[in-house]
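Example (one chain per record):
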Amino acid sequence: MKKQNTNSSRDNFGMVAVICGILLFAAGIILRNTIPGTIADNRLLEGFGILLAGWGIVPLFRSISARRDPAGARRTMLTENDERALELRHRAGYIAFLFSFIASTLVLIVYSALTRGQSGFDPMWYTLIFLSVAPMIVYAIATVWYNRK
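Predicted structure:
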């Protein structure tokens, strides 16, 4: 019974996240086109909409496939929890982390070179610094925390 409730809540999360994401994205586009001179940046709504919809797509697709083939969904769940599959996902995640770290650092370097003569406060430069440094700090803290655990 508990697994059924957990799957149901996961199914509901996927559906709600996708619907809310689409609504936020559409609201951002509608506001941008109907009220173009607003103080608020409507791209934030669109960005959160994309994030939320993307976050809900995987649980939604999994619930749809589980309804169509319950035995296949059970096999997939057992395979995903296999130690080898977990190790492969951890390695892939680490490679993705390294790629994003290197890419954001390269973008920071190129942006710094292109805006070398610019004076004044540049929020984009500080944002790129944060995107380059923060993942490494989080990685180091998480590594120490998991090693102590």
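Caption: Residues 1-6 have pLDDT under 50 and may be disordered.
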